[in-house]
Amino acid sequence: MLQRIQTIWIFLAILGAIFLFITGQDFSVFGPVPFISVVCVALILFGFISILSYKDRKRQILLNKISIFINALLLGLLAYWLLTLSGGNKFPEKGIEPLFPFLSIICLLFANSAIRRDDRLVKSVDRLR
Known about the structure:
The chain has four helices and no strands. It is mainly alpha-helical.
């Protein structure tokens, strides 16, 4: 069922990856390969696969855990990038890019808790049969 609460949480995590993809286009520190863009596309694909695998709750939890791990690595990478930027009075130089993986991690944790709650509900109904 696509109308469950975990679908909304996973979709919000996908939106975080989309916003990071949009705002993080010019990371020249990481070389010629658009590393952030590739990681964002991977996170978006993992999110959509997780939404579409709503019948297999274990796979959905696994995909969300992988996305959480990738987001945590991305958060550390972006924090490192922010700390190595030149300081000064130029505030627009330092962006809000690390905020998006952080919010995605929180949304995915909420989605995993909702999936587990749903799994417990299904198991309890199976016991009653």
